[in-house]
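Quick one, probably user error.
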């Protein structure tokens, strides 16, 4: 399982065979510290303490390095939401906890989250198979729980209607994705105190779930 790149500095040089990870770690550290991804491969090389030619052994262009960072980000997001899901047993509670986990992940890794969903990566047609797979797996947890809830009757969604399931999935995703960006940009702080944001995230997911549950 991959995790977001961790800091690497020239004082902690890579060991033989770890060049690719050292470059990812260095690029990830620059991303976290500056919030930008317009850095050069030469800058990443200096941070990793290697020759400026060595990144090309693994990444032909900088966009390939950014894509690899995004893949690790999606894998970490998937692991984070999957771990949260193990704390609940029914679809309603699982949907609630993974929604909150999603928001918490993005808020804790703002620069990485922006890269994963921003303009630093190509359009859909230009995404690598690895990135498409990682992003699909991250979203897959949401589809799985909504489909499970539809099949058990916990959600008022026709489990046999693929379009209806997709609408519910995209609606849930839109809610947590939008709130994540509002949190990262600190816009939501105009409405509530920072200490109440986690509580607001929980209440938002509960409100959405209430719209999915059958009315008695």
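Nope, works fine. Designed sequence:
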């Amino acid at each position: 399982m991959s995790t977001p790149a961790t800091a690497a500095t020239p004082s902690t040089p890579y060991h033989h065979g770890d060049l690719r990870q050292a470059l990812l770690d260095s690029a990830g550290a620059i991303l976290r510290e500056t919030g930008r991804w317009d850095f050069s491969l030469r800058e990443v090389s200096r941070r990793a303490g290697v020759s400026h030619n060595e990144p090309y052994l693994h990444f032909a262009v900088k966009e390939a390095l950014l894509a690899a960072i995004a893949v690790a980000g999606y894998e970490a997001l998937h692991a984070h939401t999957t771990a949260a899901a193990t704390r609940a047993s029914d679809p309603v509670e699982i949907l609630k906890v993974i929604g909150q986990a999603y928001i918490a992940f993005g808020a804790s890794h703002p620069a990485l989250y922006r890269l994963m969903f921003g303009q630093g990566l190509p359009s859909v047609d230009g995404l690598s198979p690895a990135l498409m797979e990682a992003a699909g797996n991250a979203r897959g947890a949401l589809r799985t729980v909504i489909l499970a809830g539809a099949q058990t009757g916990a959600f008022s969604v026709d489990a046999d209607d693929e379009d209806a399931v997709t609408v519910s999935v995209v609606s849930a995703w839109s809610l947590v994705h939008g709130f994540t960006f509002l949190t990262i940009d600190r816009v939501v702080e105009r409405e509530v105190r920072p200490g109440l944001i986690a509580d607001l995230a929980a209440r938002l997911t509960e409100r959405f779930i209430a719209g999915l549950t059958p009315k008695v």
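The domain at 1-60 is CATH 1.10.10.60 (Arc Repressor Mutant, subunit A).
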